[in-house]
Amino acid sequence: MNKILIIGAGIIGMLTARLLCKAGVSVTIIEQGYAGQESSWAGGGIISPLYPWRYSDPVTSLAQWGQQHYPDVLADIHLNSGIDPEYIQSGLLYLDIEDELEQAVKWEKNHAYDFAALSGEQLKAVEPGLASFGDDKKGWFTQSIAQVRNPRLVRALREDLLRLGVTIEQQTQAVSFITRGEKVTGIETDKGSFTGDKVVVAGGAWSARLLEQWVRVPKIAPVKGQMIVFKAEPGVVSRIVLSQGRYVIPRKDGRVVLGSTLEFNDFDKTTTDDVLQELKQEAYRIIPALKNYPVEKQWAGLRPGSIDGVPYIGEHPELKNLYLNAGHFRNGVVIGLASCQLLVNQLLGQETIVDPTPYLLSEERLVNDSKEIDLRRAI
What we know:
FAD/NAD(P)-binding domain, D-Amino Acid Oxidase, Chain A, domain 2
């Protein structure tokens, strides 16, 4: 195998390219916009599903593999690119999960996670910035959860790939596939044609749009998330805090991210004042001191939602040498590294890091009009 083409320069596309390049494969990425500037840039960067016990085993398997391997990979990216993606093991404090505690404890025991049950003043000891609660307030804390800063991660990845020799064709729109019989041999774009031995579609929420004119596709829907960031100071928040579906993430320079919404509005990325006010009030409810700091920015990203929250990873059964790596919903970072390694294992004919079966584009996972995406439960 001499060359692989990848459509999409988000975290999934770039990590896939990096792994292939490290294995000695020539890689060209085709990106309709700018590398890493869609969902990959917009996310919070928590290296854990928000409520991991709500997800199926296939998601958990990828998340755990990624959590184990991210530190070394990110350190290597930092070294090669000169850009710090700000990997921080800040820990995660869960609040308001009393109704799910039995399920969460069972999940913890099955997957060997180290959580500590806290209440009353113990919560303030872990995160002094929390609002004052009564002694009956309970929480769950794990020190093992880490984060990265998405905008810095995608910048570091892009620079790392360029130094490794990967070609990134930005502002280049993939129009169609070049085929010979039942095999893909390249990509036709608005700037010319590119040929390769295999093609990987890693276009996030846009993946199905490109594929549907050629083959049956899995249902991948854009799920908008609006977020805000406060220009705060170091020490205002020290832990990731999750409460009632909203998370607070402290960055290294003191900024604090608050997110995020789940909106099903097709490809609309506009932000709204109603959501801005809602997110501000949620921030003040969790960390009252944030009232003293301005909101620096509000933005929105489009997550690639799949029917069951499990990404599609593997070769398409109807067109040979065409592969898909998409549908990660809001877990693109946490399961991205493992999903890319799993795909690369398949591309190179290697033993896979996990059983690939749950992620493949099986008949039952291709478009079925009787199924509708409902990801509100998997938040």
